[in-house]
Amino acid sequence: MSNSEQDNENIISAKPAPVVIHAQYLKDVSFENPNAPETLKQGKGGPDMDVNINLSAREIEEESMKDLYEVTLMLSATAKREDTTYFLAEIQYAALVALSGLPEKQHHPMLFIEVPRMMFPFARQILGDLTAQGGYPPLLLNPVDFQAMYIERFAKELEDSKDISKANGKAA
After folding, report:
1. Max intra-chain CA distance, the chain
2. For 131-153, what is each residue's pLDDT tens digit?
3. In the predicted model, what is the mean pLDDT of residues 155-169?
4. pLDDT digits (tens, 9 = 90+) for 111-123
5. Cα distance between residue 36 and residue 31, in whole Å
6. Checking DSSP bridges between strand 68-81 and strand 19-32, what pairing results, if any?
7. What whole-number distance in Å separates Cα of residue 113 and Cα of residue 150?
8. Is the residue at 1 inside a domain?
């Protein structure tokens, strides 16, 4: 079999990706620079940063497509020094994704771990550009462990589902 025949066979037998990203978009953005230009003067020292990351996912009803979701990654950063606010930055970055060929029980972790992992570099870049346009050095967030966030956020539900599985296994 030639290389091109092998490639064609691989293409034909390839399974569709479990996640298809139809669109990524900036849903909302806010930047406040309430004490400029005072906070932009040299020699003031750097501010303390408070950064928060939140996720949400919702199913989108679409007759022509099932398992369509909007996943939103919310990043907020507040820079303060003592009682002076340097800046407040917030973005909501979203993706429209379709899940195909995945069992229902895998949808939730896919939407809260894998999809945000794919979205994060784009949201990070927007936040960095936003703070730079505000007159500050770009805020470049470190990579985020979305799996650890998921486990922390849904630990109770994960434990409950394990307990239910164990109880169902004993009852059978």
Report:
1. 72
2. 999 999 999 999 999 999 999 98
3. 58
4. 999 999 999 999 9
5. 12
6. unpaired
7. 7
8. no
CA 112 from chain centre, in angstroms, equals: 7
Instruction: Identify whether 171 is part of a domain.
Output: no
CATH of the domain at 122: 3.10.420.10
Both tokens assigned to 138 = 């770009």
pLDDT of residue 77: 97
Q: In one letter, which amino acid is 23?
A: A
| Token digits of residue 125 | 């870049």
> Can the peptide bond before residue 18 be classed as cis, meaning omega within 30 degrees of 0?
no
- List the 84-99 sheet strands across, edge first: 19-32, 84-99, 68-81, 48-59
Q: How far apart are CA 7 and CA 40, in angstroms?
A: 57
* Domain tally, the chain: 1
pTM here is: 0.79
Instruction: Evaluate whether 75 touches 52 at the Cβ level (below 8 Å).
Output: yes
- Residue 163: band (very low, low, confident or very high) from pLDDT cuts 50, 70, 90: low
